[in-house]
Amino acid sequence: MDPRPNAQRTASHKPGLAVFTAVGGLWVFVLVTLGAFTTSIGAGMAFPDWPLSNGSVNPKGWLEDVSMFAEHSHRLSGTLMGLISIVTVAWVWRKESRAWLRHLAVWALVIVIIQGLLGGTRVLLDAVHVPGFTMTLGQMLRIPHGVLAQVYVCLVIAIALGCSQTWIAHPPHLNRRIRRLGIFCCALLFVQLAVGATMRHNGAGLAILTFPHSTPEGHWLPATWDFRIGIHFAHRVMAAVLAIALPWFAFSIRRERAAPIAMRIAASTLLSLVVVQILLGMQIIESFRRAGVTTSHVVVGALLLATTFWATWLAHRDAIEGKPAP
Known about the structure:
Blueprint (H helix, E strand, L loop, with lengths): L14 H26 L25 H30 L3 H26 L12 H4 L1 H21 L2 H5 L6 H26 L25 H29 L5 H26 L4 H25 L1 H4 L6
C-alpha cells in the first residue's frame, strides 16, 4: 500500500469521471430547455404546491396536459441534475487531487440546491404582492432563478472540461489577449442574459413590435419610454454589441496558431450561433413570441455562453493549474 496520503487522488485523466461529468454537462441543457419552455407557455404555476406536484411525484394527467408536462418535467429534470451533482462531488473528492476542481464541484452542488429552493419559493410565494410592483414576490424570483441557471451551466462546463483528456494531456498555450477577450465576452453575455431574463419575466418581449427599427416610421429610438420598453431596447443594444464582440473573439481564436482544433471548431460554432440567435430574435417579434421560437432563443443564448465560456476557460488552463502563462 502506498504510504503517501491521498495516494488515490491524482490529476491524471480518468475516463469514467470525464464521461460522467460530460453527461452532466449535456443534461444541464435539457434542464435549461425545459425551464425555458415552461416559462414560454406560462406554465410555471401549473402546480400550486412544492416540492410535490398536486401532492404527488406522479400527478394525475401530467403526461396529457402540456402545461403540467412542462412544469413537472422541469422539476424531475432538476431533481436528476441534483443527483448528478451529488455523485460528481463524491467522485471528484475521492479521486481528484486538484483543489480548484474539488471546490468547483461543491459550488455546483450548492447552486443546484439554491436553484431548487428558488424554484420552489417562486411557487409558494406567487400570491405575495409587493407594493409598487406589478409582479408578485414569487414572480420576481424567476429572474435570479434564470440568471443563476447560467452560472450553473458555466460551473458544470468548467468541471467537465477540467476532467477531459484535452485539458490534462493536450493543453493549449494561448496568449493573454485571447484570455482577456474571452473574459470580456463572457461578461457581456452575462449582462445580456440578465437583461433578457428581466425583460422576459416582465412580459416585455413584445414591448417594441418592429425590427430592426424601434418604430413603424423607421426610427432607431422608441417614440415613448417606460420600463418595459427600456429593458427591451437595452436587450437589443446589448445584442448589437455582442454581434461585434463574439465574432471578434471567434476570429481571434481562428488566427491563433496555438489554438487546438477543438477551439477552432468552437470558434466556428460561435459564429453560427450568433447568426441563429439574431434570426430567432427577429422571429420572436414576427411570430408574436411563439413558444417554440422563444424557447429556442433562450437555449441558443445558453449555448452562446457555454461555447464562449468553454473556450475562455480552456485558454486559462495554465493559469488555473498554476503554471507560467505565455
